[in-house]
Write a structure and sequence with these properties.
Length: 165
């Protein structure tokens, strides 16, 4: 299993496939709800960040061992800042729109950077957390209060009063 951490054809293919899956998972909800940056945009951002980080790792390992291994990753983060800033709008009613979509693009880029360097242990939990934040949040914000309300009658009064519920 050591091959998945090196820059070789198998690990490159694995990282790019995971970038499509993980970036797509983050962008799925954005795309289905017709937001500015949807499924394809999140996949492309994740793929681009993955490729930038793999290129940086390749340069560091094979061409210039004295090079900075985080340089291209830093440029991805600043580039995503510009992309995200273009998504954030203030409407005529002083309502901010696009902030969550911009954060989703930033999350996709971070997932791609982690995958590109071979940090699978960070990319997977980050992807799951990001995915839960988008489609999972709607389910959680409507279901948990209703579930709590129905469970409250079974909890002793002293416990409810001690937690101010």
């Amino acid at each position: 299993m050591e091959w998945i951490y090196d820059v070789n054809l198998g690990s490159v293919a694995l990282r790019l496939i995971l970038a499509v899956l993980f970036g797509g998972a983050v962008g799925l909800e954005r795309g289905t709800n017709k937001h500015q940056a949807g499924l394809r945009t999140h996949i492309l951002v994740c793929l681009g960040a993955t490729l930038a980080m793999m290129t940086n790792a390749y340069i560091f390992e094979n061409l210039a061992p004295n090079a900075d291994p985080a340089r291209l990753g830093a440029q991805v983060i600043s580039g995503i800042g510009f992309l995200g800033a273009g998504l954030i709008l203030v409407t005529s009613r002083n309502k901010v729109k696009g902030l969550t979509t911009a954060a989703g693009l930033w999350a996709s880029a971070c997932i791609g950077l982690a995958l590109g360097i071979g940090f699978y242990a960070g990319a997977l939990p980050w992807s799951l957390s990001s995915w839960l934040c988008f489609p999972g949040w709607k389910y959680t914000s409507t279901t948990v209060p209703a579930l709590w309300k129905s469970m409250r009658k079974w909890i002793p009064r002293q416990i409810c009063e001690s937690f101010s519920i």
